[in-house]
Hints:
56% helix; two-stranded antiparallel ribbon; elongated; 20 helices; mainly alpha
Amino acid sequence: MKKRRTMEAADSQESIEKPPPFLPPCKVCGAMATGLHFGVYTCEACKAFFRRAFLIDRKYKCTKDGDCTISSKRRGSCSACRLNKCLQLGMSKDAVRFGRYTVAQKTQTIIEVRKINGKEEILTPKPSKEGSTEQEIVMDIDKRLSQSKMEKSPSPNSSSFVSEPLPTVTSTKSEDILEPKRKIQKTSSSPVVSSSEEKELDDIVQKIIMAHERIYPWMRQFLNPEYMSERYLEVYEEYKLKNAVFGSLAPLPFEEYQRIYQQTGLDIDNRQEILQKTGNHIERGIQRYVSFIKCLPGVKEIPMTDLIKLIKAARYEFWFLGHYQKMDIKLGVIGAAGDLKLHLNDLQKLTSEDFLHAEMKLAESLKRLKLSVEEVALLRAIVFMSKDRCDLEHGEKVEQLQMKYVTCLEHTLQKFYDNPKQRLSALLDRLAPIRELTELTWKHSKTFVSDWDLDKKFPLWTELLSMDDQG
Length: 471
């Protein structure tokens, strides 16, 4: 009994720490509900209690008058009265699949919650920073980086941190250019560079890899196919469970959604919720992005005006190279293993379904390359130093740094692959289709900012999407 109450308390605490944005209190005990369970809105603890009552088929007896008060603090005091209340409310083992969760049902639920909370606004937008200059935005990012801690993530020394190299591919087919055989690191490098040049390249590579490992310590796990397969399933099962409870409501056309939202303030298909989660995720990502760029060898030689343009211009390619592993086209998973776990049907409420499918197809292509952490870090440095995306005052300096990073990548491949030049060609070839997707994002950025009033909610994201400085 004590163990059961401990489990219920843990379930209750979890539901309190991560409350859904639009559910009423648990009908049984009054705690925060987590969903529609057995036909009634309940918390996790009451859901688990009702499930156990049927599995065990135990006959409970009340030791008092049969009318005990059931609350979140006293719900375990009398199981008989608790079960009786569940049944009176209409909880049934046959109501696990409640069916289609209609717009009307969801609207009524949101209205109920708003009446309980006495609130007129569901979201609390962050204040915008009107009139901020580009230099002030960068300084603001620096200030945030110095004041705030990074999100909790697996430490390189923890047992969950996957530090082993990727598995060796033993096939000898010609298509192994994409999946070349990994070699044991050589004790001496190939004689293509002098010892002094080799030392310089090793030093640059080490600085880039160390910075990337420090800022993105979870990347090794994301590059592990077995680990990610489990994460894809987690997101997909969660999506299926949500559909089982609420039904698979198709996204409303944007104009219709906006009309309803402006007239009623109701987020009837979770669009604002998804935007809020996405925006929070992106703003945290921007901080890491800028932090990594500041660590690149040679970046201090680039003028601030050029650096800001590069940060804006490279945003999508840099992001994609770090997030393609979170996508699975078979299950329709867009986010996995990170803090933003979304299904294709959720994210298409904000952006084009065709674009998302193109993204996922390209992600599958990149997965076949079986990139290592070192390759991801160096490729992200390379795509950042691309002078042809925007007008730069010192484009030649940016181009020199990019070529230096490409040489560093080739130098690294020499140590690990039998066919380094083919591998380098395969890696660089994949950058072209990512650039094509970047062009599409630029076309939709301005409308996206205006459609969602992004400047009022996410100033850093809005600034990154600014096209004023693009050539």
